[in-house]
Amino acid sequence: MGSVSLSAGQRPDAHPDVLSPVFWRDGKVVLLDQRRLPDQEIWTAYDNWEDVARAISEMEVRGAPAIGCAAAFAAALAWRAQASATVLRAALRAIGATRPTAVNLGSALHRIANAVASERDPLAEANAIWAEDLAACRAIGAHGAALVPDDAVILTHCNAGALATAGYGTALGVVRAAVTAGKRVRVIADETRPFLQGARLTAWELSQEGIACEVIVDSAAAHFLSRGEIHLAVVGADRITRNGDVANKIGTAGVAAACQTFGVPFYVAAPRTTLDPAMESGARIPIEERATDEVAIVGRRVVPEGVKVRNPVFDVTPARLVAAIVTEDGIHRAPYAFSTARRNA
Ligand code: MRU
After folding, report:
1. Ligand 1 centroid, distance to 197 Cα (angstroms)
2. DSSP letter at 98?
3. Ligand 1 atom showing the smallest separation from residue 270 Cα
4. Which whole-number Å values give the CA distances from 274 to 165, 169, 226, 241, in the listed order?
5. Atom 6 of ligand 1, residue of closest alpha carbon
6. How many angstroms separate the alpha carbon of residue 117 from the centre of ligand 1?
7. Is residue 19 within 8 Å of residue 13, measured between CB atoms?
8. Which residue from 137, 184, 290, 345 has the fewest beta carbons nearer than 10 Å?
9. Ligand 1 binding pocket mutation candidate from 190, 239, 249, 289 (most atoms within 8 A of CB)
10. How far is residue 147's CA from residue 204's CA, in Å, rounded to a whole number?
């Protein structure tokens, strides 16, 4: 196992035309440590599944599609270390428990289990999951760009970009595709407390490509919406249920409600792997709660000792607040009826 610190331009990217935070190279899973951005660009190559599982739960790699890819590669590592059904089952259980909300994680592991059961190479399956995600993001971008007018100011929450996927991104894929289509766009990124995916990751990713971006505190979004300074919002998703309810980063439901209040369209961009047609509505989506120190400590402790802190890291936006959901198949509008057939198509 090796850990390398590299400057920009020296990325160990097996796919130089795309920024990918997770990929397979030379028998190892390579991850970009997203806890260290934007100050440091640290890539680590892991050769055992336990380290990758830890990297997922500690958010070294994050974002629903990216953790699906990392989980698949971790399971492939487990199988390569010891081709035993018992060992693989234990690894799948442990990797599957790392983060509960993103459905991509469980479905990727399911695909690896099926590959092994039908005597196919789990690593080839993991690489297929990666490649399919990249292709899905590009298609989402192409469809979603049609929703972006020229001279648009786009609000986004969290990071649903290249850093959260195999590459290119979902919500930021829409931004990228609009820019490629020649549209002028400016992004307003919610900082996204407490992990600061917007301030650290979305701002870093967009600035790498020269796409205009301003960061605001989460609570400023309604202010800019109320003044007509934002033309649309687009976010990613961790799980979308059959009726179109959307689990995404905590704060998303508030953004959607403010968008509705001020008459601004609120769009969700996500690959089919984020659909959970087996779940009827968002009420049953498991919401991850993380360590309370993520909230209580901002450089130093800001919440008095002894005061209780809660840290749910996702919320559910009801389908009625969503103007459209963009997948690789196209633009979907209510009433949503995502079926198993669509997801596995
Ligand atoms: O806790 P995170 O950073 O994994 O949460 C990520 C999000 O909420 C993203 O918006 C979502 O996973 C979509 S990523 C394309």
Report:
1. 8
2. S
3. 15
4. 12, 13, 31, 9
5. 63
6. 30
7. yes
8. 345
9. 249
10. 24
